[in-house]
Design brief:
The protein is an all-alpha fold. Helix content is 77%, strand content 2%. It is a multi-pass membrane protein.
Length: 295
Amino acid sequence: MGILISAIGQGLIWATLGFGLYLTFRILDVADMTVEGTFPLGAATAVTLISNGISPIIATLVATFAGSLAGLVTGLLYTKGKIPILLAGILTMTAIYSVNLRIMGQANRSLLGKTNLFSYDFLKSLPQNFPVIVVGIVIIILITICLAQFLKTELGQAFIVTGDNPKMARSLGINTDNMTILGLMVANGLIGLGGALVAQNNGFADVNMGVGTIVVALASIIIGEVIFTDTLTLPERLITIIVGSIFYRFVLVIVLYIGFNADDLKLVSAIILGLALMLPRLRSKLRLNTFLKRG
């Protein structure tokens, strides 16, 4: 039971990554590789600040801002520098590696003996793993409400149109470059937030902790889409990401339980994502075959 509760808590805090990637992957329709650098950037920033006596709340907010700056760099390289988005993300991700080493002063840094978001006194009275769930629920609710409200505004609608049909957006007088930069900043801000939360939950930050992050975030999105129908409102789609993230964590727990080594988790994650990506096509073929047989 404790492992399952832990999986729920992990799913909640990792859902922030799914939210961030959803904005770029599904709404803006771009493949942003900055994610794998922004995640450890948020972790490094938060852990370093907390280690130096800064409040965990302020440290987490600064980590979110740092992630937004990384998104800004990628956005400028893409829109103003005319560098392909994939290459722009890789360039930023590569540069962030050195930035993280500068921030921490070493390859990894521990939070041993330091208070973080999950270890405040009022949370210590809760059963094991419940502080992560409580903090995760609060943060996820706030992000979901903010994103849902933002995407309903004129600015949010302009952002959606930019990803859906850039030519039409420009014909309506929308500055698509600015919308793209905004989207990358918000998305990577959420990724930086996710890195800060995961680092505080784990108790350390490491420069290599971003490897495979994009697969985890994609898995949350794709699994949520596979579980639920296509006819969902935007706020409902955000909720499916949370469900997908938690479900993905449950799958990893089952994989470890049946005897797989922790070193195999990256391979297992890739396989899970691959299967999830293939399921919609397989489901469509099954429906088509069923229809043809009835006909």
